């Protein structure tokens, strides 16, 4: 096989992708993307049309929402609130990763640990984390500590469960190959188990970050309303639905950016792994 | 033998957890962390007062409406997106946008537009669970083996027949899994919305949180846990009945 073909395979292209086929595929793909754009435009147009028939408090038009979002003084407030929100997101989610990833590997690698703790974890996972809020108030008060705790609680078990599943499924044969080539315990962990776990780590990041963002905004609304949650609460009190929607838009964008950053990270470090 | 061993070990895990909790509770006191022995006493009280079960029944009824609506909309939508590139292209931007948007962020919006009544909870539960149901059904529909479809076609099955006899049965396990994932999110959303407007079971949790004793709150959480595990088990059983091939094709959560 030529170097070029290897390169192609590494970059995800098929080993023998004929150029005419690629052109057709690109055409179809472009056609489909065009449909997505149309779908977005049609819905936005319907929304614009519908909003002209009801009061702006019930349904502001998309133009109003974007206008509010881009309004310089409001945008500045949004951004400073977002900055504060991201601090607690980073603290809570960082704590989750620091604890859930090693714990998941330890539990997942040992059958005994799995049999002992998996049912317990399933049971605790079944409780909606948000129901712990009164409890968190008692322990952590209403401010930063409580918000970090909720972000942690909302993402911890999702990450833990994915990591346990990943650590359990590291292929026996890979480890045996390492052993027969004389890899010691530490080397097997570092060179075989951890790389084999990377796809699951990325999956855990994807699930966990969505949960953590959810926890962030939940915390800002349910404890003392501050940052983005505070802006939402104030907009609600002023019946300013456009401002409210602009915060929702920002949270939506935050989620999309997080997912695409993780996808970029995945492409960079997991070029050898084909996602099913 | 193996089964007995794993049950024993699970019990050891629970016993360890309860033991640590008991010790922690004794040290910290009921105001910070009621130990399991105290929670058990509170739990009997909660059952006897009847508030807990009554609120639970009311809340679950509303949740069921939102969750069923999510299944009715989400399952066909996911299958359509998985089997048709056109449907995929049309709905994909919306699904990927909504699935990353926190439900909590939508609650103030809906309180403003539709109030705090029955529709609020139904809408929030629907929006929290429908996208997971769509995405799981989508993955299932994408993964239908082309070989099975080709076999059916070479035996002379028409498009509709292939859909009813081959594609759909192959997707059943994913529909069940989607319902299970969706249900977890539906219960979470129910509690979230109710804690927000202090109503129903979530409201009960909120009010109990104001007490000095943490025992009743923990008791309410345990009931939620039992409910969630029960419905999850029920859906799993339903999956095994409706589609005996469920276990083999079961996708990991």
Number of folding domains of chain A?
A: 2
**Overall mean confidence score, pLDDT of chain B:** 89
Which spans of chain B have pLDDT < 50 for at least 5 consecutive residues?
none
State which percent range the strand residues of chain B make up.
Answer: under 5%
* Distance, first to last CA of chain B: 27 Å
Mean of pLDDT of chain A: 84
What's the domain count of chain B?
2
Number of strands of chain A: 0
Radius of gyration of chain A: 24 Å
Order of helices and strands of chain B: HHHHHHHHHHH
The description of the largest β-sheet of chain A is: none
Largest β-sheet summary of chain B: none
Q: Architecture of the largest domain in chain B, CATH level 2? A: Orthogonal Bundle
Percent of sequence in beta strands of chain A: under 5%
Fold-level CATH name of the largest domain in chain B: MetI-like fold
How large is the radius of gyration of chain B? 22 Å
Shape of chain A: globular
In the CATH hierarchy, the third-tier topology of the largest domain in chain A is known as MetI-like fold
Question: How would you characterize the overall build of this protein?
Answer:
- The complex is a heterodimer of chains A (276) and B (253).
- Chain A is mostly helical and 276 residues long.
- Chain A folds into two domains: 3-51; 62-269, MetI-like fold (Orthogonal Bundle).
- In chain A, 81% of the residues lie in helices and 0% in strands.
- Chain A is built from eleven helices and no strands.
- Chain A is globular and about 70 Å long.
- By secondary structure, chain B is mostly helical.
- Helices cover 86% and strands 0% of the residues of chain B.
- Chain B contains eleven helices and no strands.
- At the A-B interface, α2, α5, α6, α9 and α10 of A face α1, α4, α5, α8 and α9 of B.
């Amino acid at each position: 096989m030529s170097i070029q073909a290897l390169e192609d395979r590494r970059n995800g292209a098929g080993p023998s992708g004929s150029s005419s086929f690629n052109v057709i595929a690109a055409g179809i793909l472009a056609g489909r993307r065009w449909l997505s754009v149309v779908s977005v435009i049609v819905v936005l147009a319907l929304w614009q049309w519908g909003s002209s028939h009801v009061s702006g408090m019930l349904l502001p038009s998309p133009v109003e929402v974007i206008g509010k979002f881009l309004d310089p003084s409001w945008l500045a407030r949004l951004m400073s609130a977002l900055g504060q929100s991201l601090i607690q997101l980073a603290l809570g989610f960082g704590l989750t990763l620091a604890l859930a990833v090693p714990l998941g590997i330890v539990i997942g690698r040992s059958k005994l640990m799995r049999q002992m703790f998996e049912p317990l974890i399933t049971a605790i996972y079944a409780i909606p984390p948000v129901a712990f809020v009164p409890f968190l108030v008692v322990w952590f008060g209403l401010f930063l500590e409580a918000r970090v705790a909720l972000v942690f609680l909302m993402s911890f078990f999702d990450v833990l469960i994915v990591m346990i599943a990943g650590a359990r499924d590291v292929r026996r044969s890979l480890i045996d190959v390492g052993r027969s080539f004389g890899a010691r315990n530490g080397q097997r962990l570092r060179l075989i188990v951890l790389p084999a776990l990377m796809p699951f780590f990325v999956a855990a990041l994807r699930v966990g970050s969505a949960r953590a963002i959810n926890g962030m905004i939940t915390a800002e609304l349910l404890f003392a309303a501050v940052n983005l949650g505070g802006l939402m609460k104030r907009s609600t009190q002023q019946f300013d639905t456009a401002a409210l929607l602009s915060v929702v838009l920002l949270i939506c964008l935050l989620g999309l950016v997080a997912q695409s950053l993780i996808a970029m990270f995945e492409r960079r470090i997991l070029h050898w792994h084909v996602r099913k | 033998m193996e089964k007995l061993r794993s049950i024993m070990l699970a019990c050891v895990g629970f016993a360890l957890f309860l033991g640590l909790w008991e010790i922690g509770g004794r040290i910290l006191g009921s105001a910070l962390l009621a130990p399991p022995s105290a929670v058990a006493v509170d739990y009997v009280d909660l059952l006897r007062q009847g508030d807990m079960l009554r609120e639970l029944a009311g809340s679950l009824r509303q949740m069921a409406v939102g969750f069923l609506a999510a299944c009715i909309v989400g399952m066909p939508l996911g299958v359509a997106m998985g089997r048709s590139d056109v449907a995929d292209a049309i709905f994909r931007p919306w699904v990927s946008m909504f699935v990353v948007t926190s439900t909590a962020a939508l609650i103030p919006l809906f309180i403003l537009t539709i109030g705090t009544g029955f529709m609020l909870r139904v809408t929030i539960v629907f929006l929290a669970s429908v996208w997971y149901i769509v995405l799981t059904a989508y993955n299932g529909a994408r993964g239908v083996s082309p070989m099975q479809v080709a076999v059916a076609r070479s035996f002379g099955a028409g498009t509709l027949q292939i859909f009813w006899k081959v594609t759909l049965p192959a997707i059943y396990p994913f529909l069940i899994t989607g319902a299970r994932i969706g249900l977890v999110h539906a219960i979470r959303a129910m509690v979230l919305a109710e804690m927000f407007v202090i109503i129903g079971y979530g409201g009960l949790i909120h009010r109990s949180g104001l007490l000095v004793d943490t025992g009743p709150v923990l008791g309410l959480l345990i009931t939620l846990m039992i409910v969630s595990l029960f419905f999850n088990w029920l859906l799993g059983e339903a999956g095994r009945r409706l589609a005996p091939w469920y276990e083999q094709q079961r996708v990991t959560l």
